[in-house]
């Protein structure tokens, strides 16, 4: 199988929203949830993810905000697909912002740490059932 880069630059016609309109419609919601996250969520588990240990986290969290940005940028375009998102330079700016928000939250909540939690769904680099904790080793990037 031969892989090649796309040769066209136009998105397919259809009722897709114009990207900046899609982001603009969400900007006040994003600002409000980000402010609430930094000012009201003080527990790392609640701050960090949507499904800790496979349980629904109904608290506002950075993963949920992060996921929304992936969808809103480009109007539910390629930033919504992990296989393609990393090819867009805005992906890196977006993730730098997530890192920045984490650093800000850590300054505000210096006594809340990761609690060992079972990875209930698995990921690109972990099997289902792996326990994530403060002792979790670095990711082994064998394919690089
Ligand atoms: Cu992301």
How would you sum up this structure, described in words?
It is a single chain. This protein has a two-stranded antiparallel ribbon. The protein has one domain. It is 43% helix and 3% strand. The protein is built from 5 helices and 2 strands. The radius of gyration is 18 Å and the shape is globular. It has helices spanning 19-40, 44-48, 62-72, 82-85, 89-108, and strands spanning 117-118, 131-132. The longest helix is centred in the N-terminal third of the chain and has 22 residues, at 19-40. Helix 1 (19-40) packs antiparallel against helix 3 (62-72) and helix 3 (62-72) packs antiparallel against helix 5. By secondary structure, it is mainly α. The protein binds copper (II) ion. Copper (II) ion (CU) binds at residues 66, 70, 95. Copper (II) ion binds at residues 66, 70, 95.
Structural descriptors:
144 residues; mainly alpha; two-stranded antiparallel sheet; 3% strand; binds copper (II) ion
Describe this structure in a few short sentences:
The chain has helices at residues 19-40, 44-48, 62-72, 82-85, 89-108; strands at 117-118, 131-132.
List the helices and strands and how they pair.
Layout: H1 19-40, H2 44-48, H3 62-72, H4 82-85, H5 89-108, E1 117-118, E2 131-132
Antiparallel strand pairs: 1-2
Bound molecules: copper (II) ion.
Bound molecules: copper (II) ion
Order of helix and strand elements from N to C terminus: HHHHHEE
Approximate strand percentage: under 5%
Please give the radius of gyration in angstroms: 18 Å
How many domain units?
1
Biggest sheet record: 2 strands, antiparallel
The strand count comes to: 2
Query: Number of helix segments?
Result: 5
Report the end-to-end length measured between terminal Cα atoms: 21 Å
Task: Show unreliable segments.
Answer: none
Give the spatial strand order of the biggest sheet.
1-2
Percent helix: 40-55%
